[in-house]
Amino acid sequence: MESTIPVKNKISHADHIKAEPFRKEPRKTVPHKHKQYFEIIYLTEGSGEHWIDGVKYPIRPGVLFFISHDQVHNWDLHSEPEGFVLIFKNSFVEKSLDRELEMLLQRFSGTTCLQISEQAGIRRMFGLLAEENGGTSDMSVHIKEGLVKALLAKILDDPHFESRRPAVRTDLFHAFTDLLRTGHQAKMKVSHYAALLHTTPQNLNAACRKAAGLSATAVVAEFIMNEARRQLRYTNKTVSEVSLSLNFTDASHFVKFFKRMTGQTPQAYRAAQ
User: What are the protein's GO molecular function terms (predicted)?
Assistant: First the structure.
């Protein structure tokens, strides 16, 4: 086991979006994160398991996976896969003049795996994105934006789609979660993040309750717990080292926090994995 979680990068520095057929090899990968990008994977053939943050998802034709850069995942494929991978950075959405693209994307927050019922249209859209992947004309970026927007809307329109979060999102909440996910050292004090976002703790708390049904403190605690679980499961860091990486002043405080949130100590959690 490594001391840190490996980070893989499948998109060049100059590119903001990439779409391609799903690679057939390797069929088994080590747990890893992505380098600051969001990934949507659509599989039309194949079998096996896909592990995301320690949760096993079976692979069946017509499955979609949504993976953010802070999540850890790995594959254990039993048969040859077919499908597509769509990768895009925050910069792709930020550079878009169409704000509906961001609004559609935000509705997938909390969604990791989705088995869809209608496949023909979604497969065509992924195929068109893959065909346009190498496009460099002035119009290519607009074509890609339109196709991504249509793809997201098509997925959202599927009867099997169930968002884990309310559809309402605010710019403040989005900025807050981005701040947590971009490697900013975690702190439990909401006032710390409010100051960075040039707002008040009250405004930040209201934005979190509107968007996620949680207080700002609960959002931070959820983020810290997810990262703690990843490090305990996928690295050989000691509990003290995990505690330090998450900005706890004392390992005993981290142990108490972890036990309060999960009902078990970090050591017990690691032993059960």
Answer: DNA-binding transcription factor activity; sequence-specific DNA binding
